[in-house]
Amino acid sequence: MVTVVQLHPQNSAAALGPLAEGLAAAEQALLGSALEFAEPMYAGQVLSTGEPTWSHALGLAANLASIGLDAPGRAAGVLFAAPKHLGGVDALRERFGEEIAGLAAGVEKLYQLRVATRGNPHEQNEVLRKMVLGMVEDVRVVLIRLASRTQTLRWFAKNDSPEKIPYSRETLDIYSPLANRLGVWQLKWELEDLSFRYLEPEVYKRIAQMLDERRVERQQYIARTIVTLARELEEVGVKAEITGRPKHIYSIWNKMRSKSLDFSEVHDVRAVRIIVPSVKDCYSALGVVHNLWQPIPKEFDDYISRPKGNLYQSLHTAVVGPAGRTLEVQIRTEEMHRQAEFGVAAHWRYKEPGKPSRREGAFEQKIAWLRELLAWRDEVADWRENTKQARLDETVYVLTPQGKVIDLPAGSTPLDFAYALHTDLGHRCRGAKVDGHIVTLDTPLASGQRVEIVAAKSGGPSRDWLSTERGFVKSPRARQKIRQWFNAKAMADTIAAGRAAVEKELRRGGAAQASLEGLASRLGFGKPDELFGAVARDE
């Protein structure tokens, strides 16, 4: 269940307590320093949604604390708006070091990306998904962004804003699927439920009302079921923690819609979770459940032997439970539960300051996996085809001055960018600015950069651009267009030379100006240019 920490605007010292849960003394001091630094800077400042910047920072950090993110991650969350107010991260780097400054810079870059693509969300949502994945070097940046969006949606619950609907659509399109792919279900459920509440208020209220009407009956049913399960598991020697599972309205609605079910037919309206010490105990518990109650066909999933793409593991089954009512049961180990609740964030929870984590090797492997496979294939069908053809780390995503996202092969230069926009612009390109600074045309571009091309009114490319040693172009498109230009120029030069030779011979022979079309036809050529080319090549 999502733990909501209600934080009202307060001074940094008073705010520290709930935000520092699980941190050592030195880590608490770091977080406290970030709060002290941010409080006067955010005083009187308001975000575009209308929310005070300071209260947003506190709520954001509370969300990060609830998923157990490390101290630098929480501090960077508090400082989410500092780069904008300070005009960069130099002051943060001097005060807090490179790690926190880098995280804050990454968060600001994602925010600027959203601003740049906000004007045409339907066209650029898919590109934004790819860009988020391709540009972020530290997963904590994405976690901070998810925590920030969760706080914004909570703000909308009590404060109306014209941003509520577009933010909610964007959340269901981008942020909740991303939270799912990262395995951060504690944020995913709230992102989904709040967005659904704003987008479909009547449907949300109807399902919430149906849940509430049967709440007492359902609680009593779950309590009796837990007693039965505990007794049976104890008899077979399986130690277990059994709880009722929280109900998520968006998930219920999705099942009703996708499977054409009535509310009473949704299995996880009544649900329990069993947490056991080992994988072997998971299957023992499953046997107990299936011996007690009749399994429902096609409702069993073994995500232990076949984990989901986000590393989620559990056994899922649905049975005809007590009193003939459907009951969903999840079975997992404690480690699986941490992964399911906190996802990637779980790997920061148990790492002591200054000591390498026992999980660090496995974590690095998971991050490598994440960089390659963090595409939410379950949610976006088109994405499956795209990932077959190009891995994320082989692409960079840069912005035009107008904010349009252009995807290029990794290592691409301003020339590649120019040719991606328009062939003629590439031919006339003479210089470039990246993030406002003049750069050479062979400068490799990085995701998130804003690129502006300086072009001549006319002219063509340089042969040097085709040099692989110089590295002016990376993309096959740019290289092809440059070659085509030189081939066309060579052909034009050849035709001009041939024409001059033909006309010279005609004058030498004293012939009147003949029809070149007629001459070419009599000599077996389809058009004069073919004749001129043959003459120039001495054919």
Structure write-up:
The protein has 539 residues and is of the alpha+beta class. The chain has 4 domains: 12-194, Hypothetical protein af1432 (Orthogonal Bundle); 211-349, 2-Layer Sandwich (Beta Polymerase, domain 2), CATH 3.30.460; 392-474, Ubiquitin-like (UB roll), CATH 3.10.20.30; 484-536. Helix content is 57%, strand content 10%. It has helices at 12-19, 25-42, 53-66, 71-78, 82-86, 90-96, 98-117, 121-135, 139-158, 164-182, 185-199, 201-213, 215-235, 249-258, 279-292, 334-342, 346-349, 360-373, 381-389, 414-421, 423-428, 476-508, 516-522, 528-536, and strands at residues 241-244, 271-276, 294-295, 301-302, 315-320, 326-333, 395-399, 405-409, 429-434, 437-439, 451-455. The strands form 3 sheets. Strands 1, 2, 3, 4, 5 and 6 form a 6-stranded mixed beta sheet that branches. Strands 10-9-11 form a 3-stranded antiparallel beta sheet. It has a two-stranded antiparallel ribbon with strand order 7-8. The N and C termini lie far apart (82 Å).
